[in-house]
Amino acid sequence: MLKILRNFRRTIASIAVGALLLTGLTIFRPRAAAQETIAKTNPAAAKLPAQTAYFEENRGQFNEKVRYSARGTGGYSLFLTPTAAVYVLASRDAAPARRDPKNPTSDIRHPTSDIRHPTSAVAVYMTLAGANENAAVAGADERAHRTNYFRGAETDWRTNIPNYGAVRVSEVYAGVDLVWRGRERGGVEYDFAVKPSADPAQIAWEIAGADSAALDADGNLVIQTVYGAIRQNRPLSYQEADGVREEVASRFVVQNTAAGRLRVGFEVGDYDRTRTLTIDPSVNLSNLSFSTYLGGEDLDYGTGVAVDRAGSVYVSGDTYSTGFPVTPGTFDPSLYYWDTYVTKLNPAGTGLAYSTYLGGSNREQLGNIAVDATGSAYLTGQTDSSDFPTTPGAFDRTYRGGWDGFVVKLDPTGAALTYSTYLGGSAGSTLPKGIAVDAAGDAFVAGSTLASDYPTTTGVYDTSFNGGDDVFVAKLNATGTALLYSTFIGGDSSDQAYGIAVDSAGDAYVTGATASTGYPTTAGAYDTSYNGSGDVFATKLNPAGSALIFSTFIGTSDNERGLGIAINAAGNAYIAGNTNSSVYPTTTGAYDRTYNGGYSDVFVTKLDPTGTGLRYSTYIGGAADEYIGALAVDATGSAYVTGISYSSNYPTTAGAYDATYNGVEDGFVTKINPVGTAVSYSTFLGGTGSDSAVGIAVDAAGNAFVTGYTNSTDYPTTAGAFQPLPAGGGEAFVTMLGDYTISGRAVDTSGAPLANTAIAFSNDCDGFMLTDAQGYFGLADTLAGGTCLVSATNTLYNFNPANYELTINRSKRVNFVGRPTASGPTVAYADLGGDVTSTAGSVGLSNTTLTLLDSTGRVTTTTTDAAGNYRFANVRTGEFYLVFAQRDGYSFMPATAPLDFLQQKLDVDFAATPDSPRPVQDFDGDGKSDLAVFRPAEGNWYILESQNLAFRVVRFGLSGDIPLAADYDGDHRADLCVFRPSDGNWYRLDSSNGAFSAVHFGLAGDKPVPADYDGDGRADLAVFRPADGVWHRLLSRDGSYQAFRFGLGTDRPLAADFDSDGRADPTVYRDGTWYRLDSAGNQLSIYRFGIAEDEPTAADFDGDGRPDTAVFRPSTGTWYWLDNADGEFHAVRFGMSGDVPVAADYDGDGRVEQAVYRGGTWYELSANGRATAQSFGLPTDVPVKSIR
Length: 1188
Hints:
Low-confidence stretches: 1-51, 91-119
Largest sheet: 15 strands, antiparallel
Helix content: under 10%
Oligomer: single chain
Number of strands: 90
Shape: globular
Mean pLDDT: 82
């Protein structure tokens, strides 16, 4: 993988590097600077990081030798010719001084800051030595979006430039093709296809412009430049036969040429020269399954993370943000001061199940979080609030002074405290750091205390305070009303516990740091002698808390600290921490037995179940400092550690999600195999700022969930994430790393499970398993981007289909339905499915109803998903069927699809053409927008209907109400509606039946944004809350409630169906930059069009059925817009300062007219350029604007 960071859309032709010349290739054609008031690109082309890179065809915007270009993350550009790839890396040294830390989009809103005028840049040329200069170059996998350049004179403009997902260079060598592909996060990759009998030895890159090119310890090619490194992973070479991929040994070979250039070739082992060989230097082994910011306008820290059986993710930490995202109905919606928070995310990381503050009037600090089988969350930490919330009957409801511990159990809904109690004494602070929960719901808490009167229980190991600060271990019953046990553990100096784990027998395992020579150890333990300066301890306590099963030191004469502990099913304790010693005990064959430098290395040590010996012990680190955050262990015994690294050479693995140090400080995630001899994967995690990974959890499938703190505005997030952008001074983050999974179930035709069905996986996945007693199966070892053939076999059943071929671009689920083999004549069943695609934008059309009608008149229906896909499963073959699609507002081709006799799996696709869109603000249903004003002084609506010029007056509202006419009842006529900002109430009068309704949905200060978000033909209630940037929606289709964070407090929200999928897309306008989230929440588009003073609007000026991006500039009365159909730019002066824009389709021709309201007069400009004026209203009236 070519590792470059940060994928923001920029216009490369304006880089002021000048003309970079090398090997006769001039990359850039200088052009005049673009006008500030118009968009630099097609809106669809600007995407959030974590989107797949694309290749733009050269239509004259670059030198004629360039065939395609790609825009990468981190400000690099790639230019492709038939035989060369040219990377341009711009210096970013000055960027931090220009970036506004409180404005995460400053580098987007002002793209000249980093790219147009970099301090300098470097070009790296990779040329294929001896390659075919006349090789055919062609784009593949054409994308829907187009790129436009508007610079200088109109003759220099370039519009409607196609973009592709891949570029193929055919016969670049004899019998060899080269394919370039876009990857997630803006990276690109390439592979060579060596045809039968062709010679792979002829392939060689010659590299110029780089400082060096060398192989790292893992065999990856690292090309160093003054402005960063280009990294290509160790090649994976393979051949395929019958759908099975067979790996062929291969590696990079680096040598110098006579001309002093660096040459890189490939050495390939033995392979079958009668078949095609693929050489792929970039294979993704670790995937960012989801990643999101989590926070408000101020500081937010993620400390602990847990995951439940359903895959929901619980994160907790500390926040100083009044706008931290909390959900309605949770325990505590308001910040006091420095509070703890608890947030439950759905398994996809796209939304909140609940989120709540937790705290008193002073400060709280979280220790950690645990979750039980019911979904209850357990938290521990410290507070200096005398009014920290406690529950009746709790063990201790009295604040003891200083820092007091707390233990809290939150119910599964997040709405109430099951219990909450203080835990501490009055003689000094008590600092709980770790928490675990057993199957009975008892909570185990460990930490340190300075309080000699810390509460202990009778019969425990140690009831006496030992001096300094002591470790404590407490077991609290499931109701929080009593301590089942509580004990000191310590010596005469400082003893501090940081982590605790509990096994199925109820034994508690504790680790931390001790400076006590007399810290208690047990006979025969691994190390019974204190080593000096500060040692790790590992202590195992029996279920009653009355005795130590084992207790040992681990350390050297330097300083060590144990910060995380976990156990496996065999009772091995894993401890992770920090050491600054070059002689920390390691074991033979361990991954790393050498201290790596800096002030601190991470260590991971695995004890045997008796605590008498080390199963393995290893360092992990780079040349600078590393600090551990947390440790987890999966069901296989692999250990996962996360933390902070300051080392550019922290060890990462081939194919890691991020193998390049991003600067300042980065998080890391590292997985160690069960015997400690190797790192299974290791990756950096971060952006260009400070990133601290603090908490980690692992689910049953081996997916890792990480939380921490970042002030990077470019921390990697994923499409559809709950909070894709930062909101303030520093955010928590939640990231899931792991393999995509394939899972499913085998059942019979009645739905009963089929146990012991053989499930086989082949192609880019490999495995075999039997379904369990409930018919379930699952495979986690998959290859992102590959294909997997999944098949089912059972001697007693026939499955139809018997296999599925899947593309592994996300986790997939399939089901097999079997019919008994002995049930008489065999009746075959097949799947019938396909796609429904809108002709406006070539996007999948969701919420379309498909009807399957058989010869007996039996009707079956299904609905397309977010991507426009549908499927009828297990359709009986050998019969006649009709299939047709229906959705309000669309015509379909074919109108009806006849299937004479269904014999096998069939695909039937439909093209959906939008009908002429219904005009907004149409009160009489004649297809034209009507004039309407709201008179606040009276609360009256005045409406002039276009159909017969009928005039109506309706009293509906109060002074201060916001009029929001829209079609809420789905009868194709606008309904009267007002939003009352003072109390968040909506009042509506339906046109269909005159029904009145009042709904409380919002708070004072909310901004109403009604629109049809669910695609049912009716406007939904929605508000944008500036206090925290959260959208709240009440969907009319099923009454469901949605909340998601998207925007900042000063943003101007709007919503329209930009992608023509029938659902409105939430959008915010920020000082000239548009942020648009597609209706499925999967893709964010960011583009600049306008300036701060402009009024944004979404109106279909070109009549293609999709709203265009448009602004009205009050200072000049000018309208600017980009046609959605072809990206053409328009500017029309129609209006003056003080006018209110009221664009709508007043003449019913399917195109919106520019229109303004001025002191009681409506001015309209039709598509043919004819201007009209009509007096309707008073200067103090509020014109009723269009609502989509």
